Amino acid sequence: MNSETHTTETPRETPSYTRGVLDELRRRADEEEQTPEYNETYIFDTTGDEVIGFLHDVRYDVGQYSKTVYTIEQMDGVKIDIFGTTVLDKLMADVEIGDPVLIRYLGMATTRNGRNQYHKFQVVS
């Protein structure tokens, strides 16, 4: 027979030194404005547009459509975010954090069966 032991812990009183730490955190939170840093999102809209820099970060499952977001640190140190597409994600698969990368937008292309269009890219790393 399998017996389970259930224990109920009684809430403990917060030690006084912890209350001081919590009070300090609350005071600092009230004083500090914490605005998250967002990078500018780069949108490719003209054939030939390109971004050159270093792959700084990759975030997965971002936003409502679970996109991959690539953060590129450009040569001037400014970081930009690029939302992936199916094609871009495949091309970026072998690029590692810290690698130099050029992403060039080649415009819209049509699938072999002629039914759909997609955004075409060139990635050099």
Please characterize this protein's 3D structure.
- This protein has 125 residues and is α+β, with helices and mostly antiparallel strands.
- Helix content is 18%, strand content 38%.
- The chain has a domain at 40-124: Beta Barrel (OB fold (Dihydrolipoamide Acetyltransferase, E2P)).
- It has helices at 16-31, 86-92, and strands at 40-41, 50-62, 67-74, 79-83, 100-110, 117-124.
- It has a 6-stranded mixed beta sheet.
- A hairpin with a 6-residue loop joins strand 5 (100-110) and strand 6.
- The mean pLDDT is 87.
> What is the CATH C level class of the domain at 40-124, in words?
Mainly Beta
CATH architecture annotation of the domain at 40-124:
Beta Barrel
Order of helical and strand elements: HEEEEHEE
Q: Hey, roughly how much beta strand do the residues contain? A: 35-45%
Lay out the secondary structure.
Layout: H1 16-31, E1 40-41, E2 50-62, E3 67-74, E4 79-83, H2 86-92, E5 100-110, E6 117-124
Keywords:
125 residues, alpha+beta, OB fold (Dihydrolipoamide Acetyltransferase, E2P), 18% helix
Brief overview, please?
With 125 residues, this protein is of the alpha+beta class. The chain is built from two helices and six strands, in the order H-E-E-E-E-H-E-E. Strand 5 (100-110) and strand 6 (117-124) form a beta hairpin.
